[in-house]
Amino acid sequence: MGFRTSNMTPQVLRISAELMEKGGNLPELYRRSIVNRSYEATQFWGIGLNNLEKKDRLVWTTLTIADRKDVNYPGRDDADLINVLSSIDGADIAVIFVEQPNEKVKVSWRAQPGFDVSKIALQVGGGGHAPASGAEIDGSIDEVKSKVLQLTSDLLESNSN
Q: Residues 66, 20: one domain?
């Protein structure tokens, strides 16, 4: 979405032009769906950005249930923060860990071209495609983080050889 991913094609642009010719307000749709954030979502981002970590070409952050409650964020997702992390210069892969009830953690990956994070997601019961994947994994936030960061570091290492 937003005409920024590698699956953008001339056909998508033609369809978008047709929608605009029929009265579709694409700038307004883009603003509402991609740009606008609630106050609570923005506060949630602040916590995630404050928790940001980096090792070599990997960046990640963690959001807990307590964080969500502290800012009264109603969702169980990352408020689309993963896409902000994926824009960090020098990071080939971004990961976000979002604690869920009942000892589960939602994990999202975003990768630069040339890295296939779907391989990691599939290993832990998730799915997706090469540049964007996710999974919900059983375990504590610390257990899941340790396992996922190791798998992701291994992928980065294997791509550099």
A: no
